[in-house]
Structure formats: structure tokens, C-alpha cells
Specification:
322 residues, alpha+beta, 60s Ribosomal Protein L30, Chain: A, 2 domains, 6-stranded mixed sheet, 6 helices
Length: 322
């Protein structure tokens, strides 16, 4: 049995949605941690404001996701299994992209800015500080500041000092919808990786600023000034080999094309591998579809959830519609 990081709840649902860039709003709902999974899900959904375009739902590995498609009505529904949520009794965390925002100059996507250690540590707040410093370097390259951040998601290897982590992110990004999720990390390592979306102040291209690690595989900053933005659904590899991962991207490309988007224009690539093998396959194949000259901003870390599919990788993207 393979471990599938992530399940698309309703395969028959539309595989993407085109949204107005200038009015997008980002919301994070962490419901009161009491009651059943369905009760928490309903409580979270009731707090979301505006027309919903995309849900990304984080759950524990053992969660039964069958009720989700009944409660969460949206063109794009993504379900990601993580190691743990912020409270021991919390069963679901909800991120939503909705109407109701004001982004007249577009959006800026910030790659997952990561900090790792080759040792385990129960307290990750110092690593979070370093990751946020890197997010701020990316913001400055786009002529932005922390108050411009609309959404921040941090993946961390330990929740032992989550109160301190929340204080750090809330004080630095007071206007952002913030989320903190524990992801499973191989034994002997610690990790923090924080991705962000910010409100642009002007046109921003694809940037890899000084002071941040240079990589040909992703841009630290990707701006979108197009009037419309395409959010794909989730595409998974039908098998854990080159053929399967290539098919994943071929299907994604076909879905994007139907909506007037193109993979060589992708602004952000959410990648969900479940193994080092999957990471290597993605790295070998993705630039048959993405632009090497303007690689998208991206997050790619291991997500080990529960499932019995042969898939080992999944992807979803945000791309401008020209």
C-alpha cells in the first residue's frame, strides 16, 4: 500500500475555476475544537464569507472525508492530510478563496520559504522566525511589506510551541489569514516552510531576490496582474513512475487550456509528493510543462497521509488567464 497524501473528494466536480483577480479574498477558519468532524466542518463552513471559489481542507490522516462534498460546495475542493492540527481535538482546518477582496493591482505569490535542521527539535519558533525573515525578503523584492500579506500558511514539524508560533505570525502579518499545520518529517529532521499571497502595489514579474537561495526550479516571487486567475483542481499521478507523473501534468495542462490558461504561465504550483521518489519524478518532468525561463513560485514538501492509491504525487496550480 502506498500512502496518498491527499484525496480529491469528488472527481466529477469541475477541475478548476476562473476568478476575478482584483476581488479575491483569502480566509482561514480553524473551528472550535469540539464535536465530531462533520460538526467542526459545518461550523467552519458557516464562518466563511462571500462566494467561495476554492476550498483547501486540512485533516488528520484517519479522517473520513466522505461528508465533505455535501457540506463544502465550491468549484475546487482540495483535501490534504497532515500529521496534526493546532489543537489536539481539532479535526479540520479550512482555507477558502472567495469574493470580497480588493486587489486592484493584482496578487503576488511567495514560494514556500523553508528552514530545515538535520536534528529533531520540539520547539520550532526560532526556525519560524528565520522562515518569515525570508518571506519578508521576497516581499521587499516585490516592493511590498508585511501588511500587504493576505494569506500565510506555515507547515511545521512540531506543534509543541504553537502558541509562540502563532504570536510570531500574527504580530508580523496582522492582516493575513494565517494557518499552521504539522507535516510528517523523516526521522532526525526538523522543518518549517511558509508560503504567502500578498496584495500587489504594481506590476511584479517572476523574481528570485538577493539574499535567498537561488534555484532553477522555482521563483521566490510571482506576480499576477491579469484580470482573471485560474485555480485548477487537484490532479494526481495514476502511477508512481515517469508515465504516471507525466500523465498528471498532461491532464493538468488540458484542464488549464479549457479555461484559457497555460502551464508555462503558472504563478504558483502546489506540489504534494509522498516520497523522495515522487519528488525526483516531479523534478524530472515538470519543466516539460512549466517555463524554465519563468519558473513558478512553488511549495513542495512531503505530505504523508492515508490512502491505498497507487498515486504518489498530486498538483494544483494558480495561473493567469490572458
Amino acid at each position: 500500500m502506498r500512502f496518498l497524501l491527499f484525496l480529491l473528494a469528488v472527481p466529477a466536480m469541475p477541475q478548476g475555476v476562473v476568478t476575478p483577480t482584483d476581488s479575491l479574498r483569502f480566509q482561514v477558519i480553524n473551528p472550535e475544537p469540539k464535536g465530531t468532524l462533520t460538526e467542526q466542518l459545518e461550523r467552519a463552513e458557516s464562518k466563511v464569507k462571500g462566494r467561495v471559489y476554492r476550498y483547501r481542507v486540512f485533516v488528520r490522516p484517519e479522517a473520513d472525508v466522505k461528508p465533505f462534498s455535501i457540506t463544502l460546495r465550491a468549484p475546487v475542493l482540495t483535501i490534504v492530510r497532515v500529521a496534526a492540527l493546532q489543537h489536539k481535538d481539532q479535526k479540520v482546518s479550512l482555507e477558502a478563496v472567495t469574493s470580497g477582496g480588493k486587489n486592484p493591482h493584482g496578487l503576488v505569490f511567495i514560494s514556500g520559504e523553508g528552514v530545515t535542521k538535520n536534528e529533531t527539535t520540539p520547539k520550532v519558533a526560532p526556525m519560524v522566525t528565520s522562515a518569515l525573515d525570508n518571506v519578508d525578503k521576497a516581499l521587499r523584492a516585490a516592493q511590498l511589506a508585511p501588511p500587504d500579506v493576505l494569506s500565510l500558511t506555515c507547515y511545521i514539524s512540531s506543534l509543541d510551541d504553537i502558541a509562540d508560533v502563532r504570536k510570531l505570525t500574527s504580530s508580523r502579518y496582522p492582516k493575513a489569514a494565517r494557518n499552521h499545520l504539522q507535516v510528517p518529517i523523516p526521522f532526525g529532521r526538523a522543518l518549517v516552510e511558509c508560503e504567502a499571497v500578498a496584495r500587489a502595489r504594481g506590476a511584479v514579474g517572476f523574481l528570485s531576490p538577493e539574499g535567498l537561495p537561488k534555484s532553477p526550479n522555482f521563483s521566490h516571487v510571482a506576480g499576477v496582474s491579469a484580470k482573471k486567475l485560474y485555480w485548477s483542481g487537484v490532479y494526481t499521478s495514476p502511477s508512481c513512475d515517469e508515465t504516471g507523473v507525466r500523465k498528471m501534468y498532461q491532464d493538468l495542462a488540458a484542464g488549464a487550456k479549457k479555461e484559457g490558461a497555460s502551464l508555462d504561465q503558472v504563478a504558483f504550483s502546489y506540489l504534494y509528493p509522498d516520497s523522495q521518489q515522487a519528488i525526483d519524478l516531479i523534478r524530472n518532468i515538470r519543466f516539460g510543462f512549466y517555463s524554465r525561463e519563468r519558473p513558478p513560485a512553488s511549495t513542495m514538501i512531503l505530505f504523508n497521509g492515508a490512502g491505498d492509491s497507487d498515486a504518489c504525487a498530486a498538483v494544483e496550480v494558480a495561473a493567469p488567464v490572458q
